[in-house]
Amino acid sequence: MSERDLVAQALSTALEGQLSQEEILSLLENPKSKDHGDVAFPTFTLARVLRKAPPMIAKEIEEKLPKEGFEKVEVVGAYLNFFLDKKAVSEATLKAILTQKEHYGDTNIGLGQNVVLDMSSPNIAKPFSMGHLRSTVIGNALANIMTKIGYQPVKINHLGDWGKQFGLLMVAYKKWGSKEEIEKAPITELLKLYVRVNAEAKEDLSIDDEGRAWFKKLEDGDEEALELWKWFREESLLEFNRIYEMLDVTFDSFNGEAFYNDKMDEIIDLLDEKGILEESQGATIVNLEEYGIENPALIKKSDGATLYITRDLAAALYRKRTYNFAKALYAVGNEQSGHFKQLKAVLDKMGFEWASELEHIPFGLITQGGKKLSTRQGKVILLEEVLAEADKLALTQINEKNPNLPNKELTAHQVGTGAVIFHDLKNDRLNSFDFDLKEIVQFEGETGPYVQYTRARSMSILRKAEFTPDENANYSLNDTQSWEIIKLLQEFPQAVIRASEKYEPSVLAKHAVNLAQAFNKYYAQVRILDENEEKQARLALVYAVAQVLKMDLSLLGIGAPDEM
Question: Which residues contact 379 (CB under 8 A, 6 or more apart)?
Fold first, then answer.
């Protein structure tokens, strides 16, 4: 039970049902000063109901409160300030972590139900760039978090392997491409062709028409078009999988846009049967004004071509039938918010109650020099190069700090690539951020390497002490230095739930940084290995820190080396 749950339970008893435990939890605050306790409860809300002065209400509640679990409860004006029983809380928290280990914080909220995650989803025949990082690592972290709370994630890489751009690429290949050159460096050459054809199409509108024609051939099953498309796709997947291996990200399905090509007719038939299709300027639409959505969903263009939303409708229906998901999450950039509002609204209008189970998980951009990265203009930062450089920077620092470290290259990869992932996930996902690699791969500051180094330090202490926790022992501490750590350790299960409810991995990244900072402060102030009656309890605390930091990192998809 977290400190807030303990306080809410006591207040619920004292208030005799005037506020529910959920309402009490929503009102609890963190005191501005540690001198004012661990949790504060303001009584202003009750003043409106009870028609009494808040300080009087606070005093009356204090008299009725059960005091078990608290060192003391003070009334300060309109506030009740709770000081938790450090000895009892530390004993319970350490016991839970030492016995449950990596299962600390596990819950069965999900009841084993499936959660489908649409994530990563790069376009074939284009390089895997920094622009694909956010969807990949946010989706992967959410899959880990959902597993922790009892769901079964299904990770789907909805590849961008269909559309007019592939028609344009075929035009470029036919005009300027060389099979030999592409076979030597597939993605590099295909990118050159893609950038060139887009530049030429701005000057020569007929190129755009040729692209449409080639894509129409592909849709109609033309042999040459299909052969080129399959070639582009196979070469792309080889490249992508190499990078996914670097990130330690796996998928349950690579069914991309093309997979749903033969499943859209059913969607159009269903929309027609429901009587919700309309004609507008030759196009086929679904009007969504009753949902407060001004723009209609464009199902078919005037030339009969289907659009993204038609394909996503087919994908949603297929996934519901195949996986019977409890939730379907789409880790896709913020700029697609309008599209997903339309998608949910159309599915709801079709009568699918499960439309409410779809959630768009939007995120901001990674920028360089404050500017958006664009494949079309050739401004690409290749993710593979970034990860390789991050690993190299990490290795340089490891060589300086610990030149005799075994398996240096593996540790450098965990640290370097982990730093890139951590930097992405420590930011609230809706925020955009500028990318500076040298700042990210630092062993100081709010970075992944800082958290990893802190955990490695804790493991070093445990090795030096030759400490193995006794699961039957009752370790407890009541000093102020350890109390900040105990509170953060106790908070971990609730942090996991908060991260799952908000679909926000940054909750766990911030928890990891706070715990690492609290431990390093403790390390600087307390002689952990001094022989006295508290030594074993202090070592149990170090063990708990190592365990929880590892879980924080693991849920974010980041390794936790035992030595650095």
Answer: 368, 371, 373
Q: 99: which residues sit within 8 A by CB, 6+ positions away?
A: 471
One domain for residues 34 and 124: no
- What is the rounded distance in angstroms from the CA atom of residue 459 to the CA atom of residue 536? 15
Kindly state the DSSP code that residue 259 receives in the 8-state scheme: G
pLDDT tens per residue, range 475-519: 999 999 999 999 999 999 999 999 999 999 999 999 999 999 999
Quick one: residue 185, left, alpha or beta (phi over 0 = left, psi -120 to 50 = alpha)? beta
In terms of domains, do 74 and 126 share one? no
d(CA 458, CA 528): 11
Integer Cα distance of 368 and 94 in angstroms: 44
Domain assignment of residue 68, yes or no: yes
Q: What does each C-alpha distance from 209 to 201, 229, 244, 362, 406 come to in angstroms?
A: 9, 18, 36, 33, 59
Does the residue 479 lie in any domain?
no
Q: Which residues contact 409 (CB under 8 A, 6 or more apart)?
A: 391, 395
Number of domains in the chain: 2
Select from 128, 120, 379 the least CA-distant residue to 235: 128
- Give residue 17's domain range: 3-84
pTM exceeding 0.70: yes
Q: What is the CATH number of the domain that holds 341?
A: 3.40.50.620
User: For 84-108, what is each residue's pLDDT tens digit?
Assistant: 999 999 999 999 999 999 999 999 9
Q: Both ends of the chain: CA-CA distance in Å?
A: 34
Contact in structure between 187 and 235 (CB atoms under 8 Å): yes
CA 171 from centre of chain: 38
Question: For residue 434, what is the enclosing H or E element?
Answer: strand 433-434
